[in-house]
Design goal:
21 strands, about 30% helix
Length: about 500
Amino acid sequence: MKRKGLKSLLLVFVLTTLAIALSACSGDKEAENSSQITIGIPQDLEDSLDPHKAVAAGTKEVLFNLFEGLVKPASDGSFIPAVASAYEESEGGKVYTFTLRDGVKFHDGSTVTAEDVKFSLDKCADASAGEPLVAAFSNIESITIADEKTIVVTLKEADTEFLAYMTTAIIPASNEEPDTNPIGTGPYKYVSRSPQENFVVEKFDEYWGEPANIEHVTFKICANADSIVMDLEGGSIDMFARVTASQAAELSDQFEVLEGTMNLVQALYLNNAEAPFDDVRVRQALCYAIDPSEIMLMVSDGKGTEVGSSMFPAFSKYYMEELNDTYNQDIEKAKELLKEAGYEDGFSFTITVPSNYQPHIDTAQVLVEEFKAIGVNAEIQLIEWDSWLSDVYQNRQFQSTVVGVDASNLTAASMLQRFTSDSGKNFINYSNTNYDAAFNQAISSTDDAEKTKFYKECERILSEDAANVYIQDLPEFVALNKKYTGYEFYPLYVQDIAKLKLAE
């Protein structure tokens, strides 16, 4: 009996030990499969976490994962219902009626109401401080709650493009601190932010739509462009959008490099209110001095698409390839224009560039060399992104800058309205009455062909007036660790993290 009891005791011990070991292995496997990803971004989200106030494209592309409007953009460029389950356009684009989706939850657990929707739209339409937060909302005559499930937006003038502005984020009226406590309806919800370090989100389990695949996402600030490859290879980040061609070439085979376009207009943006750029002949001279194909060759191995005005190719209906030939490189013509303008011996100026965007730095360096051929000396001034936002964009204290300007939504108006004389986004201080008139005719027209004609007229004026030195829509190289898959490019400057998933 004693021997039999000892055997039984040993058997229990072995089985218990095995169970513990299996449990540990299971736990290790579970931990290994716990879905998380660290994504490198070039700048902190410093302007505002309020989606209605955010200015920087880098901020908005992250907030895309937290917020939704009544409709939202899809990767094919269409608009699909979001907080609204359906919508109807009537009276030739003057009245828009939205039916709210049942049971949509905010990240704080509260249910979206018609009052929240009206609050969000009213907030963006408020012009008491000058221009509305969404410029197109100045055309809104009324926002009414027809019933608890129906919102009606009536415009002063019909606008067949207005649906695109209904991507404006819906936020809870009860949130008193939207600048620091972002609460939306998107597939991810805010967890924390460490200034200059990271921005952390997690999967929102009560999301109304297709759930996100990855549970935990950390957006890590990688402001030093020179360390991005090291960060990727060292494992501190798993993905970085918009690596340069040279950085992509340095990566090992543990990364997949996906290629798309950035959907923006990269240019040397000129302060038209400051000499010598208040003289159209000087601006035109700079346009004749450059060769976009040479810039693309030096910056991105020849990849990218030349642009001759403020419209990129994804807007196929409006993009005018013929404007690329407005200023084919002509050094003698450039010198002649400078002489006419009183700058026969050339001049010097500063190109202010955000230090965290290597493609813009590389582009500025090529421009500096090209301008030497016409006797113009340009000096690059690198500044941090937050300084660029305050000094260049907001306060307009600059001579020139190399950046990319994107569309806030899928409308030609979002690209072109910023150059109207009274636009708060007109950071280059451009002013042209003919341009203003053409733009106003475009947005007031309900005939698509006529609208397109006037938008193209705006592009032609910007090109011929050399409002800026237009260069290209940059190629976008996304470095993604092969542990993950599912990345999709959008015809907008966004990063849809909900589509990413662990590779099988």
